[in-house]
Fold these 2 entries.
Entry 1:
Amino acid sequence: MRVKEQPYCERCWSLHKLIVTDCLQGHHILSYKHYNHLKLDYLNVAVLCRTCNVQLGDSNVLDWKVSEEVREYVEVNR
């Protein structure tokens, strides 16, 4: 489970250097609405707080810093 590896919101940390640990949720980077076949893929899930998850919704936006592996994954699967 990614929360064990990164027990804080990836987006809040990347954009604001804030460690937010409340109300963490799994966010589909490429939304399962548009990319249903990727909904269980480990690299497609980011740990975000509820606020960030709601802000992004199903937009497929990647506006925070992620690993090169995740960035490549997103580019290949778009």
Note: DSSP finds four helices and two strands in the chain.
Entry 2:
Amino acid sequence: MTLAALMCIPLVTNIFFNTPAHYLAFTLSPLLTFVVGGILSWSCKTEAFGFRSREVFLLTNSSWILVCVFGALPFIFETEISFTDAFFETMSGITTTGSTVLVGLDDMNPGILMWRSVLQWLGGDWLYCHGGCGSAFS
């Protein structure tokens, strides 16, 4: 559900730059992400239990894939690229590799450019600090 909240940043950017034609992508994407995230969170409310190594690996891989699938939604709704390219763009941002499949970045709307920046921040700073530093002290 954090990803859904972060998807609102490009919506605010589009509102600031007065580009109403681009509001839909950053309204539907966080809504879908929040609903699915809420359903998954609600359905997994159980008693405390421990994880074995196998479950930890599965949970980690599944989390990365789901974040990339839902992070690709704005690219799919906003640009005319395939799901594979949108997934690649999202994975590239979250892993901070810097590769892109988008053409004409100078002419894209500010919301998509902000979303690319948010993805790179999410992967570079936020996941590093909360995942790496947090696990080092627990």
Note: The helical segments are 2-6, 8-16, 25-43, 53-71, 73-78, 83-94, 110-136.
